[in-house]
């Protein structure tokens, strides 16, 4: 291995000839006696053993999710739901498991009890080769890792490092306000390279358009940020604060606020925000035991068309409309959307602000004591994963909204269905 020095006394170890994966096939099942830290046979562990769930995270297109456990990690396919892959480790588990779409590359960060991989080290693991192809060590614990095809992003509490996937060279360093949640998100379209993270002030979001060499600072909230997410092209941003009452959607090119919706009146801890691929819906999960679905009024122009530029290359349609016009008229649909508002909104000059807010269009309820993250699947369905080891698939009526209907439930650590 080559050992490279890096700022802040971080250490990067990399194998020669690393290349980011060009294909995105499914995971291969591990073989008994495979080399590396997961070299023992899976048969030494079974679902009856004591396994603690340390983390859950979606892959970039929400088709799979990874579960970090006290004995390793497991990968699950969402539709149809099934466990597709696992690796078990005797020396401890992983508090962070980040997938790269469906390919064989993962970023792993050990849990507190991991004797082999401490929580201040990132392992880039190639499971096809059953070996570590890169390693990053830092002075403080890693809060999050984000991957795209050409970048590796490591989030510490006060700093973010951006590395090139090809050779693991450091490209950017970003200072942030205290970020214990590890808030950071990336675009995943090939023709846009966007990163969003907390800025240096409370409630501020810093947006880096790397391809345009442009930084945008957005004053999103008065309180500290609790959750942020980007669309796949990185041109729309949704945010929530630690108050957890309002979710705001911004144009990342000029920082314009496009829409504001209300989860509730009482303070809440927001666990996840997701935007549907067609930018028609937004989901929010919180410690109130509810997933809320909101109708978005953001206009998507020509989503199936490519716009040719003077040079003959193609731009994404989203990039075209964001660059060509950043006014509210261009980005917000004339339709008011399907979110219900208060019948007293005509008195908004007298009544508190929340009486005229846009409220959720559809909802799903579950136990308040568990942390859940939600995302969108196909055909007006939402998938929900809980830290109690549960998986839900729910559908909502796109016309009338209301309470969502549960379609599936699995206890994924044991992969058995709950009796109806």
Automatic annotation (TrEMBL):
Keywords: Repeat, WD repeat. It comes from Cinchona calisaya. It is found in: Preautophagosomal structure membrane. Pfam families: PROPPIN. This is Autophagy-related protein 18c. Belongs to the WD repeat PROPPIN family. GO terms for cellular component: phagophore assembly site membrane. PANTHER family: WD-REPEAT PROTEIN INTERACTING WITH PHOSPHOINOSIDES WIPI -RELATED. Its main location: membrane.
């Amino acid at each position: 291995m080559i050992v490279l020095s890096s700022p802040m006394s971080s250490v990067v170890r990399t194998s020669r000839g690393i290349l980011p994966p060009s294909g995105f096939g499914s995971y291969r099942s591990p073989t008994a006696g495979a080399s590396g830290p997961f070299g023992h046979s899976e048969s030494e562990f079974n679902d009856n053993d004591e396994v603690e769930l340390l983390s859950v995270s979606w892959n970039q297109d929400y088709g799979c999710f990874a579960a970090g456990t006290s004995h390793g990690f497991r990968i699950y396919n969402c539709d149809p739901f099934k466990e597709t892959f696992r690796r078990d480790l005797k020396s401890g588990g992983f508090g962070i498991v980040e997938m790269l779409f469906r390919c064989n590359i993962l970023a792993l960060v050990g849990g507190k009890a991991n004797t082999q991989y401490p929580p201040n080290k990132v392992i880039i693991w190639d499971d096809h080769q059953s070996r570590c192809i890169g390693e990053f060590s830092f002075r403080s614990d890693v809060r999050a890792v984000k991957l795209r095809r050409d970048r590796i992003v490591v989030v510490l509490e006060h700093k973010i490092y951006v590395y090139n996937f090809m050779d693991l060279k450091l490209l950017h360093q970003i200072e942030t306000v205290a970020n214990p949640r590890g808030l950071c998100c990336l675009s995943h379209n090939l023709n846009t390279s966007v990163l969003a993270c907390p800025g240096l002030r409370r409630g501020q979001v810093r947006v880096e358009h790397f391809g345009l060499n442009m930084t945008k600072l957005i004053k999103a909230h008065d309180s500290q940020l609790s959750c942020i997410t980007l669309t796949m092209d990185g041109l729309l941003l949704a945010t929530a604060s630690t108050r957890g009452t309002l979710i705001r959607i911004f144009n990342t090119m000029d920082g314009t606020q496009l829409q504001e919706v209300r989860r509730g009146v009482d303070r809440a801890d927001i666990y996840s925000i997701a935007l549907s691929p067609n930018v028609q819906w937004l989901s929010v999960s919180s410690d109130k035991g509810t997933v809320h679905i909101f109708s978005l009024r953001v206009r998507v122009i020509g989503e199936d068309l490519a716009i040719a530029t003077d040079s003959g290359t193609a731009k994404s349609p989203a990039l075209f409309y964001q660059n060509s016009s950043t006014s509210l008229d261009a980005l917000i649909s004339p339709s008011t959307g399907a979110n219900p508002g208060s019948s007293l909104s005509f008195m908004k000059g007298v009544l508190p602000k929340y009486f005229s807010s846009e409220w959720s269009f559809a909802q799903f309820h579950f136990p308040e004591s568990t942390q859940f993250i939600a995302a969108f699947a196909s055909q007006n369905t939402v998938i929900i994963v809980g830290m109690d080891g549960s998986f839900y698939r729910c559908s909502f009526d796109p016309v009338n909204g209301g309470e969502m209907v549960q379609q599936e439930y699995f206890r994924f650590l044991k992969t058995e269905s709950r009796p109806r």
